[in-house]
Structure formats: structure tokens, C-alpha cells
Amino acid sequence: MIDVYLLSGFLGSGKTSLLVQLIDQVNKQGRQPAVLMNEFGELNIDSQIVEEKEEVPLKELLNGCICCTGAESTEAQLQSLLTDYPNVDVLFIETTGAAHPVESLDAVYSPLFADQLDVKGIITVVDAMRWLDRDKLSQRMLALFLEQVRHAHFMLLNKADLLTADQLASVTMQVTQFNSFAPLVQTTNAKIDFSYIEKMVDAASAPKHAISTGSGLPLASKVLSFEKPINQEHFEDWVRSLPDTVYRMKGYIQLEGSRYSHLFQYAYGMVNWIPEYMQIPSKLVLIGEQLSSIEYPPEK
Ligand SMILES: Nc1nc2c(ncn2[C@@H]2O[C@H](COP(=O)(O)OP(=O)(O)OP(=O)(O)O)[C@@H](O)[C@H]2O)c(=O)[nH]1
């Protein structure tokens, strides 16, 4: 299994600075790192920085962020990365500063990779200066900024050097009020020990089944596998009965009476079925909060 970490954080918060160091540290651990990167625009400056620094498998998603280019292109990128570099141990995905964490996770959780990727969590770089000035952000950007904090599994409060000790103490308190679950470390130039992040993220995870990323985490995932074809009506009844904290679902499902699998998608209360032209092992990925007790068929 490949350990996967999503790097989230606002534009300019220090994600690339963090990434360069993490790659270096994973290399020193004798493990093979890889990077999936995306950024708005044609030219990916960050990936040039990383490539100059390190020999590291790198795939870019240009022309849009991981959430808007859609899961399909991320799947294709991941597929080619896994094929081209079969020995990858740790994969970092740098999402654009404008990506919503749920959307980013959604793109990574493909039922196709459920057996290969162990999505460990979201590392959010919080720009401490930006936090102080957050009232200057537009409503939409402020909401995104806060969502990135809220859904983090580990937080770096970066640019600590630019704040006074009092400011830093007060920002730390405010940020941890927003997400009291994720450990927070104050950093300058995103300097941090990767093994510490690994330890903290692992410690926070609940016992795992299949590829679930810790059901106790604020934002988690869970994979359900189905041996037998599924009755569509019963399945949709079950979907409607799920709590609001299930944000997304997608999977390949073999329906009763169908020869081939269907691609099932769920978002914002809407379900969508698309017929495929082959049989794919039936697996459903859920993304949300408090997923541990969710099973199909539901327990009576
Ligand atoms: N003073 C100070 N500057 C920092 C710190 N961390 C990063 N920077 C600077 O902030 C700028 C942005 O850092 P990056 O690592 O490129 O941030 P990013 O989040 O990847 O930026 P985007 O790619 O725009 O999303 C660079 O000029 C860094 O040198 C810090 O802790 N203190």
C-alpha cells in the first residue's frame, strides 16, 4: 500500500516549501516518494522547483485544480504514476490553494485504487499572517480558508516568524478552536519532521478496515465491498437513510439483472448511475464524517 497525504492550504501558505522538505526526508528514510501536483495555469512553476531539487516521480494536473479537472483526470494521472513508478512508498498530492479538501479527497478516492492507496489524511498549512488578516478575504475565500482548517488531520501554523509571540499564541488558540482534533505545530518555512506527522496522523486514526482513513477523524473515508449483485431499489433506500455527514460516495456496483457494472455517484443528495461495459469488482467509497458504523446491507 502507498501512503497518501494531501497537502492543503491557502495560496502562498507554504505548501511547496513543505513538499520539498517532505520529499527530502522520505528519501532519507530510504523510501520512494512521489508527487501529484496541480495548479491553475499552463506553466507549473512549483513542479519545476521540486524537479530541480529532487529526483522524484512527478505528475502534474494542469489547467485546473484537482477538484475541477474532475476525478477522471486525476484517476488517469494516478494510474499512469502507479504504472510508471511501481515502487512508490509515499505519495504527496499538492492541491491548489483554491481546492476544497472534500473535493480533493474525492478525486483521490477511486474505487479503482482502493487496494493500492492508503490515504492517511490531509495536512493543512495555515498561513498565520493570513489568519490575522482573514477579514480582508471575500466571503467565499474565507469559507474555503476555514474549511481547509476544519478538515485537516494535521496542521502547520506557518510563517510563525512574521508574528509576535502574543499574536502567535492568540492565532494558535483561535485555529485550534476551529479544529480541536488535528495536532497543530507552529512552523517557519514549513520546517517539520515528517516522521512526527506520520506518527500523529496514525495515532489519530481509529482501527482500520480495508482502506478506511481512521473513522474517528473529522473527514474520513471508508470502502465497502460487495460480493453479490445489489438490488438497486434497496440500495437507493439505504442511500437516502444515510446521515448528512456522508458527503460523497462513488463506486462500481454490479446491479441485479445487469450484465456489467454501473458507476455509481452520489453528491449533495443526488444519485447517478452510469452503465459501464465491463465487470469491475463491486466497491463503494464513502467520504464524510462518522462513517465507522455505516454498513451495507444495513444492520437491522
Ligand atoms: N516569512 C516567511 N515566508 C515564508 C514562510 N513559508 C513560506 N514562505 C514564503 O512564502 C512564499 C510562498 O511559499 P510556497 O511554499 O511557495 O507556498 P505555496 O502554498 O506552495 O504557494 P502556492 O503555490 O501559491 O499555493 C514563498 O516566497 C516562501 O518563501 C515562512 O514561514 N515565513
From TrEMBL:
Catalytic activity entry: GTP + H2O = GDP + phosphate + H(+)
Keyword Hydrolase attached: yes
Single GO term (MF): hydrolase activity
Superkingdom field: Bacteria
Gene3D superfamilies: CobW-like, C-terminal domain, P-loop containing nucleotide triphosphate hydrolases
Cross-referenced InterPro entries: CobW-likC_sf (IPR036627), CobW-like_C (IPR011629), CobW/HypB/UreG_nucleotide-bd (IPR003495), P-loop_NTPase (IPR027417), Zinc-reg_GTPase_activator (IPR051316)
Signal peptide stretch: none
SMART domains, sorted: CobW_C
Keywords: Chaperone, Hydrolase, Nucleotide-binding
A GO term from the CC aspect: cytoplasm
Domain (CobW C-terminal) ranges: 219-295
Similarity remark: Belongs to the SIMIBI class G3E GTPase family. ZNG1 subfamily.
Protein name per UniProt: GTPase, G3E family
